[in-house]
Design brief:
The protein is of the alpha+beta class and about 180 residues long. It has helices spanning about 5, 20-60, 65-80, 85-90, 95-115, and strands at about 120, 135-140, 150-155, 160, 165, 170-175.
Length: about 180
């Protein structure tokens, strides 16, 4: 007789679950816990990413309201300087020239400071009308420009980071018969 033959085979209590069933149940519970852990880790990573994105957005766009207010000042500087004829400036008293040069320098500094904070003018030179960046205030004869082209900028538009801060107010070339382009604004 071998040693195995002398061993007593444990009897399963009929009131107790079978060991194989217990092992299967524990494996299922283990798999469920692993799945819950992985989901919790993924959710934690998503919250971290969202928080980081919100922090970046807060940093990039924190000055939005302030920048809009400053653009009104920039517009006033540009309007004031656009009304000074160059021939009148050349013949002006040195004190007047000095004041105008000071206003020009202040406007440049303001625009430079806005640029440092991500505020950039929208490019409109030789551009086509883009409703995402421009606001058409009038449709005018194109004077040789194709329909849908920007003819004149009434008010400069700006972006901050990658978002529109203020659309450029523009006049747009009307489609003229025979130019082959039929663009409606």
């Amino acid at each position: 007789m071998s040693d195995f033959e002398n061993e007593e085979i444990p009897q399963v209590d009929p009131g107790q679950p079978h060991p194989a069933d217990v092992i299967q149940k524990l494996n299922e519970e283990n798999n469920e816990l692993k799945d819950r852990l992985l989901r919790a880790l993924a959710e934690t990573e998503n919250v971290r990413r969202r928080g980081e994105q919100e922090r970046r957005n807060a940093s990039d766009y924190a000055v939005t309201r302030f920048a809009r207010d400053m653009l009104e000042i920039a517009d006033n500087f540009a309007r004031a300087l656009s009304h000074v004829p160059q021939d009148a400036l050349a013949a002006a008293d040195p004190a007047i020239k000095s004041v105008i040069e000071g206003v020009e320098a202040t406007e440049r500094q303001l625009m430079s400071t806005l640029g440092k904070h991500g505020v950039k003018p929208i490019e409109t030179e030789n551009a086509r009308f883009d409703p995402n960046l421009h606001q058409a205030v009038a449709e005018v004869p194109g004077g040789g420009k194709p329909g849908g082209s920007i003819v004149n900028v009434v008010q400069t538009g700006y972006t901050i980071a990658d978002r529109l801060l203020r659309p450029a107010m523009v006049t747009v070339a009307r489609s003229e018969p025979g130019n082959g382009i039929d663009t409606k604004v």
